[in-house]
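Subject: Sanity check before I submit

Could someone independently write out the structure tokens for this chain? I want to compare against mine line by line before I put it in a report. The sequence has 123 residues.
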Amino acid sequence: MFDLLITHARIIDGGGNPPYRADLGITGDRIAAIGALAHAGAARTIDAGGRVVCPGFIDAHAHSDLMLLIDPRHEVKIRQGVTTEIIGQDGFSYAPVSPASKPYWARYLTAIDGDPRQVPGGW
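---
Independent answer below. Compare away.
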């Protein structure tokens, strides 16, 4: 018995293969089986008919540095399928910053990433 069964999915496996239809059986946080599983037992079932199941996407140029400090779950990206972000790629970041240069960087980075004063407990 699976914890979760996703049925009637259009699968894109990330390996460059053409999409195919299958069901996915999930146990814990792992895919335990892929195939014709529609009649298998599961604690919960999701009918993914008309939807795609695929690996998470990588955002190779993101400006989410500050948002990850404000909201570590960063659901806005998860809902888009992004599971990995590359941040700090433009040669600047929120650390290390000296107390003397902090006001400058706060003003500069606000235009790119948002207002650092939103970080709970301070930046």
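---
OP: Matches mine. For the report I'm noting this point. The first strand starts at residue 2 and ends at 11.
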